[in-house]
Predict the structure.
Amino acid sequence: MLFYPSRLSLLIFGGAALALSPFLAGADAVPAVPPGPSPAVGKAAARPQPPTRSPDAPGAPRFTRLDGKAGVNPPMNAVGNFVIGPDYVPAPELKVVAGVPQGKVQQFTLSSKDSKFYNPGIARTAPPTADPANPKTQIVAIQPVDYQRTITVYIPAQYVPGTPAPILVTHDGPQQGRADMNLAHVLDNLIAQKRVPVQIAISIANGGGDAQGSERGREYDTMSGKFAEFIEAEVLPAVEKTYGVTLTKDPEARATMGSSSGGAAALIMAWYHPELYRRVITTSGTFVNQQWPFNPETPGGAWDFHAQLIPQSAAKPIRLWMGVGDRDNYNPNTMRDGMHDWVEANHRMAAVLAAKGYRYQYVFALNVGHGMGPARQQILAHALEWVWQDDAAAKSRR
């Protein structure tokens, strides 16, 4: 372990296992909170189990049915809506394959005290309450906090120093030393088979907590370009300096990926900064009203993606893969605003994307909840390959 005199510390794991993929964590995993004392927060009431939604229910898009065939994913060249499951088979790309070059996974830490964007962080001091003056938001008590943010970097064996590398930015990255090399193994195999470009994956831990009044919520659920700007100004330069790599500026060679609010953050980055990112992967995307503080320009938070932003805007050069579970979140919460059904939100996203002519693929997975549970091990490699399938990506693999 190497310690630097600044607030940036570096941890290198040669062959150690690290948690890289929010897709492959527990189905209802809570984002890790950085070390240090936690503010006192009242105990929230247990949520009821989400209902199971049928692919034939009113409001669902028209699906191509692939369910009943274990391990089957949609065609790689297909766009539109597909049902998979309810039985899932882990993709072979998750395994280490003899003779396939193995990339290196390394970690370093950034302190909130050094950030010009998120210094200090925030944390709730009590559960949110309904705002009697505005049914679309909540009253939240917060306090400032300092935190450490772990950055996990995968560098493929095929990377040539000095060459601008395509990048994959993922959200809800691991804390120091978490075990799981699934994303690295998948990328090793896909890169070796030339199914995706040689790319550097940068997995960024959130600032702690969840939803309204949390640092994670401020970063992920805010409808603005700020989080993408933070990554561009502070995270990517630190990756280049720490590891001596060069990251591409070409938006066609940049992908971003996340689950839940991390999925919302992935699309928010590309929506507000398509000159930086044009390829997006989401599972259980939180395209619901979770933004805080309230913003009158987007009063429904990420719900406004399908309610107004996408329908009322010219199509942007974004290629989007989405997945959701049939038992995904249904959380009316204290607002009772009708904008907290994750399945409905993702269905609505599929409808407006189709209407606007976007290149998208939407997977509705049976027998899984928030985060898509065991379906993720089947679809991660597929989603990564699909999001890179076009002429621009093919050119970068030659």
Remarks:
- The chain has one domain: 2-42+55-397.
